[in-house]
Design goal:
Rossmann fold; eight-stranded mixed beta sheet; six-stranded mixed beta sheet
Length: 485
C-alpha cells in the first residue's frame, strides 16, 4: 500500500489587522519531504508517527509539504494557492496513493477562500481519484463544514485543549484510513450543529466531563470516533460554531443519532461552559493575596489566536501597583528588541514598549528598562517535543519586573520562554503569560494558582457581540438563550 502525508496549518483571525503572507509560513518552517526527520527539535511528530507506522507495516511512504504559520489575518490568496497546489502536485506526480493523511488546522481562511481545508481536499480528490482514502486530522478550534466532511473519508479532531493528544489522534486516523483502504471498514460520518459559540478548555469541568463522554461513546459497538468541534470564535465564516462529529462503521443512522445525543448533552451545559474571568484589577487583587507562585494568563492578547501580542495593559497595571517578584512574557515588539540589542546588555534607557500594531494593541508604555540578556535565536518548548521559535529576543528589567520581548510572534507555551533567557522563576510570585490556555500544559505543574484574566486585546470572549458578517445565521448561544428550542 502507498501512503502520502502533508500539512498546512494556520488559525485565521479574520478580525486581525494584517494578512498572513509567505513569511509567516517561512518562520514556522517549510518542510518538503523531511518533516518527520528534520532534526534539531523541529520534527513534526505526526509525520514521524505516520512514517513509523507505515514502515512497520511494510507500506511505501511519501512526505509532501508540511508548513505552519502563527495565527493572524487571512492568508494571501496567491500564497494559499501556491501551498495548496504544491501538495496537490506532489500527490499527483508521485502517486497513485491508496491513502492520503493530512494534518490541517480547520480554521484557515484565505483572502478569497473561506474554507481552505475543504478546498485542498477537493483538489486532492480531483487529482488522485475517488478510490484514494483521504483522512484529515484537525484542531478542535476549526470551522467544520459539511463540504469537508463530504470530501474526506475520515476526520479526527484533537480532544484536549491544550492539544496534548494530537499524536494519539493521528494514530486513530491512520488506523481508520488504512482499514478502509484495505477493504476492512466503511467509515461514515455525521455532523450535529450545537448552535453554540464558545471557549472550552478541557483541563477542568464541565469540559473534562465532555471529553470523558466522547471517549465513552467510542466504546459503543459501531462507533469509530467522536469529536467535539470547539470552533474558532474569532474567524468569521459561514460555518463558525460548535459541533459534534461522529464516525460510525457503515451506519449513518448510528453516526447521526450519536452525534445529536452528544451534542445535546453539551448544549444542556451551555451556561456552565461560558468563560467567566476577572478583569485586570480583580485578577491582581486575587493574585497578590494568594501564597506561592501565581500564573496569570493574558488571554485576549494571545498570538495563538491571532492577536498582535503587544498589548502592555497588564504590565502597566503591575508597575502601577509597584509589584515585584514578577515576570511577564512575551511581548512581540521587534522594534524594541532591535533598540535593546543596539544598546547592549547592561544598558539602561527609556523605551516605548508595545502598543504598535493597531487598536487591539492599546497604548504603548514609556518605561525605563535595563537590558539583562540577549538571545539571537530564542525558543521554547511547544506542545509535544517540538521547539517553538521566538527569534531574536531580550530580557528587560522594568522596575523589578522581568519582561521577555521577542521578534517572532508566538504565545507562551512553557517556562523556558523565560528561563531560556536566564530569568529565574523559582523566586517569582507572579508570572504573566500571553496565552489563552495552551500554557496550562507546562505551567500547571509549577503553579500554585492559575488565574485567566479578561484582559483588553483582540480575543474578546463576549461571543454574543462579535460582529459576524459571514456566519449563515445569528441564531446561536449566547446571542440567543435557547437556539435549539
Amino acid at each position: 500500500m502507498r501512503i502520502f502525508t502533508a500539512g498546512i496549518s494556520t488559525e485565521t483571525n479574520t478580525f486581525a489587522p494584517w494578512p498572513t503572507g509567505l513569511r509567516g509560513f517561512e518562520e514556522g518552517g517549510l518542510f518538503r519531504g523531511n518533516a518527520s526527520h528534520a532534526g534539531e527539535g523541529t520534527d513534526n511528530l505526526v509525520a514521524r508517527l505516520y512514517r513509523e507506522l507505515a514502515g512497520a507495516e511494510g507500506h511505501d511512504f511519501v512526505e509532501g509539504l508540511f508548513t505552519t504559520a502563527q495565527p493572524s489575518g487571512p492568508t494571501l490568496q496567491r500564497v494559499w494557492e501556491e501551498l495548496r497546489d504544491e501538495i496537490i502536485a506532489s500527490a499527483r506526480v508521485q502517486g497513485p496513493f491508496d491513502v492520503i493523511l493530512l494534518l490541517l488546522h480547520g480554521a484557515m481562511v484565505a483572502t478569497e477562500c473561506d474554507d481552505c481545508e475543504a478546498d485542498l481536499v477537493a483538489g486532492l480528490r480531483t487529482a488522485c481519484g475517488p478510490s484514494t482514502v483521504i483522512g484529515v486530522e484537525l484542531d478542535p478550534h476549526c470551522h467544520l463544514s459539511q463540504a469537508l466532511v463530504d470530501g474526506a473519508d475520515a476526520l479526527i479532531l484533537m480532544k484536549e485543549y491544550p492539544h496534548v493528544d494530537y499524536v494519539e489522534r493521528a494514530r486513530e486516523l491512520y488506523a481508520i484510513c488504512t482499514a478502509k483502504a484495505l477493504g476492512k471498514s466503511r467509515p461514515i460520518s455525521a455532523l450535529f450543529d450545537c448552535r453554540m459559540i464558545g471557549f472550552y478548555p478541557t483541563t477542568s469541568e464541565p469540559m473534562a466531563g465532555v471529553v470523558r463522554e466522547l471517549r465513552e461513546a467510542e466504546r459503543r459497538p459501531g462507533v469509530l470516533s467522536a469529536s467535539f468541534v470547539h470552533g474558532f470564535p474569532w474567524g468569521d465564516t459561514a460555518d463558525t460554531g460548535s459541533k459534534v462529529l461522529v464516525i460510525a462503521e457503515s451506519d449513518m443512522a448510528l453516526a447521526a443519532r450519536t452525534a445529536e445525543e452528544l451534542g445535546r448533552q453539551i448544549y444542556a451545559q451551555r451556561e456552565a461552559l461560558l468563560p467567566r474571568m476577572p478583569g485586570i484589577d480583580e485578577a491582581l487583587d486575587r493574585a497578590v493575596a494568594l501564597p506561592g507562585r501565581v500564573v496569570l494568563a493574558d488571554t485576549a492578547d494571545n498570538a495563538g489566536g491571532g492577536a498582535p501580542g503587544d498589548n502592555v495593559s497588564l504590565l502597566r497595571a503591575l508597575l502601577a501597583r509597584g509589584l515585584r517578584r514578577a515576570a511577564l512574557g512575551a511581548i512581540w515588539d521587534p522594534m524594541s528588541v532591535q533598540a535593546s540589542v543596539e544598546a547592549g546588555v547592561g544598558a539602561r534607557f527609556m523605551l516605548r514598549l508595545g502598543g504598535k500594531c493597531g487598536q487591539a494593541s492599546g497604548d504603548p508604555l514609556d518605561v525605563m528598562v535595563s537590558v539583562r540578556a540577549i538571545r539571537e535565536r530564542h525558543d521554547q518548548q511547544g506542545l509535544g517535543g517540538a521547539r517553538q521559535p521566538m527569534g531574536l529576543s531580550v530580557w528587560l528589567e522594568c522596575a523589578g519586573i522581568d519582561v521577555v520581548v521577542n521578534s517572532i510572534r508566538t504565545q507562551v507555551f512553557a517556562p523556558d520562554a523565560f528561563t531560556g533567557l536566564g530569568i529565574a522563576l523559582d523566586d517569582k510570585h507572579l508570572i504573566v503569560v500571553k496565552s489563552s490556555h495552551h500554557f496550562h500544559a507546562k505551567f500547571a505543574p509549577i503553579a500554585d494558582s492559575i488565574i485567566p484574566v479578561a484582559s483588553p486585546g483582540a480575543i474578546q470572549m463576549n461571543f454574543a457581540e462579535i460582529d459576524y458578517r459571514k456566519r449563515r445565521d445569528l441564531n446561536f448561544f449566547p446571542r440567543v438563550p435557547d437556539p435549539l428550542a
